[in-house]
Amino acid sequence: MVENLFVGNRLGRGCANLNERTHVDLRNINSPIIIFASHGDNITPPQQALGWIADHYKDVEEIRARGQRILYTLHENVGHLGIFVSSSVAKKEHDQIISTLKAIEALAPGLYEMVIAEVQGEGVEKTFKVAFAERSIEQMMEQAGGDDSNRPFAAVARFSEIGTELYDLTLRPFVQAISNETSAKFLADTSPMRMQRWLESDRNPLMQAVQGFAEEVRKQRRPAADDNPFRIMERAGAGLVTQWLDNARDMQNAVIEWNFHLLWGAPPVQAMGEQLSRTVSEAPREDLRTLTSVQDALDRIELGDFADGVIRMLIFLAHSRKEVRRSRLERSNRMLMATEPFASMKAKHRTRMIHKESLIVGYEPEAAMDALPKLIVSMEDRRRAMALCEEIAGSRDEMSPETLAMLDRLARALELDPAPVLVETETLRKIA
Fold this sequence. Notes:
By secondary structure, the protein is α/β, with parallel strands linked by helices. It is 57% helix and 8% strand. The chain is built from 23 helices and five strands. It is globular, with a radius of gyration of 30 Å.
């Protein structure tokens, strides 16, 4: 845990190994990745929670080429524990993330920010508008507050490695020779944190009298009035102590940060960890077109059927909007689950099809557009495909000019009316 995650950051640098045979590469994750970060989190700040993406990928094109879906959302002020236990976060971010999980299958590979906006209502009745906005890695890191240099932390990691090696060569053999189960238990029982709690517990004979006193106080306890002078003093004292602790914490953090950069930011010290500061994204970039998945997709630009054509059209529409509303994503997912030929496909088949068509549209958009008539041959299927796309896109009154232009371009590519009439849902079901 210490060497691979914290001090060494081997997982973030792409150098972690579970064992001699298993190398851990985050780029090989196939499932969608959802990241919840907060600017108020001083344990895992956004630069760390999102920085691994910049360390592994040069740009979003590489994320798409590998078929990954990475979604993130940024909170303004909730703290580290609040991310997990805050009721306001649970009612907003947690609820929206969980309710969106079912529809993520219909999302094309890429990097998205999950934007949650309050619409109306109060408390538990409050409703939210959710959209997935396409982001570049540069935009993401700018939102996170910039990318911290890895070199000071790499120097710490190298110094830690040297210390571990010296310990293993000098002290470890002697410690192992004089250690046994009894001494290990004694050291554990006498650790400062455990000893402190033992001294204050009823296991300490000197604390036995406290139990009787506590019972008497509990029986005779009476709540004091709010205007009681001692209650007022209590609240004022609690406020002063809280403010003092907050200021002491902020000052302590500032001093620690200042001392860290003073010590580990010096060029001679940073040079010691230069080799450990390199990330996967800094390696010479491979030609993504040479990836097997990309070559396989590009070889099939003109191969496919109705399903391939509809998915390609939906990806064209998504790229024209630069963001996907959750309502549209849910409509896309319902289409994949309930409309043939998609409903009878296995989930992994649909996922591979979306990945393939995303690569085709991303690398060869003009050829992909020109090949649509070869995928959707009959005029009846072309009208049905346009009807499906319009139903998923929603009302034309809510569409952006770019989306309207893309719809018209798709219609012309299929030799249909540039302004196709939206087929009623009931009629669409009959056609399906």
